Amino acid sequence: MLQSRVLVIALILLLSTALPEVHSKSVFERDRRDWLVVPDAVASYVYEAVNKVSPRAGQFLVDAAQTPAVVATRNFLIRETTKLSIMAEQLIEKIKNLWTRVRGY
């Protein structure tokens, strides 16, 4: 019970300090590859925090992350996020082109 409380506190502290670092750029300044780094960065921060508190729990996270279900889900999310990022980039380009035509330049 005590370990789970320590783990929850560590995760709260970790996420409160890690997420502002991840979101330091403006949405329009991001390269589409930056979006794919966010989940891996969060997972890395969580693993480091858990591993510091309990190496056994850290090893459990590593083992859990390598199960076929997690790997398949991660690959699916990466594939779909890439598609969405490309579509968002194309939409932004279309909006820029439309705005340029509306302004008359």
TrEMBL record:
Signal peptide range in chain numbering: 1-24
Any single Gene Ontology cellular-component annotation: chylomicron
Keywords: Signal, Storage protein, VLDL
Record GO terms (molecular function): enzyme inhibitor activity; nutrient reservoir activity
GO term, biological process aspect, one: lipid metabolic process
Record-linked InterPro entries: Apo-VLDL-II
Role summary: Protein component of the very low density lipoprotein (VLDL) of egg-laying females. Potent lipoprotein lipase inhibitor, preventing the loss of triglycerides from VLDL on their way from the liver to the growing oocytes.
Sequence similarity: Belongs to the apovitellenin family.
Name of the protein in question: Apovitellenin-1
Native organism: Manacus vitellinus (golden-collared manakin)
